[in-house]
Amino acid sequence: LGVLKKGLADMMVTDLAAVPALQLVEREKLQKLVDELKLQKTSYFDPKTAQKMGQGLGAQFAVTGAITAIAPEMRIDIRLIEVATARIVFTEKVTGASAAFFDLQQELVDRFVTGLNVKLTASQRAKSGAIDINALVTYSQGLDSADKGDLTGASKKLASVVQSSPQFALGKSKYDEILEPYARVQLWPSHSQVSLPLPREKM
């Protein structure tokens, strides 16, 4: 579940970004701060840790979460924490079958925005386009590789996602994002060249 948390975080950010009342910080910026502060994974859910991260990002509130799975069930928790005081404003959780992961994630988004007293319309739901758990795991592995600076490994994973799940809009967007800095590097012959894979066309 460790690497899957990164994919879930990206999905949550994508879905919540569709709500005009919210201004979110990208997961990559948060990951950079986590690396700089040398935070332990076990401390992510702690209010004091969330406060420290929120202050570093200039945020008013911080959102933290956790996934727990005991087959065949899964539970996803989320907390909204006020950065200035480290006060837990509210918590939400969803529990259900692991096979219903995407339904649970969307239910959690709905509950979260309800807790914020923000209305989420039908057009604002499910912006990530994820429907396959295997694609999400591969996507999460690609994010993990990118966070570690391994663009080649990340592009291989994301190319696989684009090929196997073309409806996964978030996967395509992230793949294009990974290719962007590579294209800039290609403009400078003095830099070492890295070959990034392209998604294959389905026959």
Would you write up a description of this structure?
There is one protein chain. The chain has about 200 residues and is of the alpha+beta class. Helices cover about 50% and strands about 15% of the residues. The protein is built from 7 helices and 3 strands. It has a 3-stranded antiparallel beta sheet with strand order 1-2-3. Helix 5 runs antiparallel to helix 6 and helix 6 packs antiparallel against helix 7. The two termini are about 35 Å apart. About 5% of the residues have low confidence.
Summarize the topology.
Blueprint: H1 4-17, H2 27-37, H3 47-57, E1 61-70, E2 73-82, E3 87-97, H4 101-115, H5 133-147, H6 151-164, H7 169-186
Antiparallel strand pairs: 1-2, 2-3
Helix pairs in contact: 1-4, 1-5, 5-6, 6-7
What class, by secondary structure content? alpha+beta
* Overall pLDDT confidence: 80
Considering DSSP H and I runs of 4 or more, what fraction of the residues is helical? 40-55%
| Unreliable sequence segments | 186-196
* Assembly category: single chain
Most strands sheet: 3 strands, antiparallel
Shape: globular
What's the arrangement of strands in the largest beta sheet?
Answer: 1-2-3
SSE string, helices as H and strands as E: HHHEEEHHHH
> In DSSP terms, counting alpha (H) and pi (I) runs of 4 or more, how many helices?
7
The percent range for strand residues is: 15-25%
Radius of gyration, CA atoms, in whole angstroms: 18 Å
Distance from first to last alpha carbon: 33 Å
How many runs of DSSP E, i.e. beta strands? 3
Name some characteristics of this structure.
single chain, 3-stranded antiparallel beta sheet
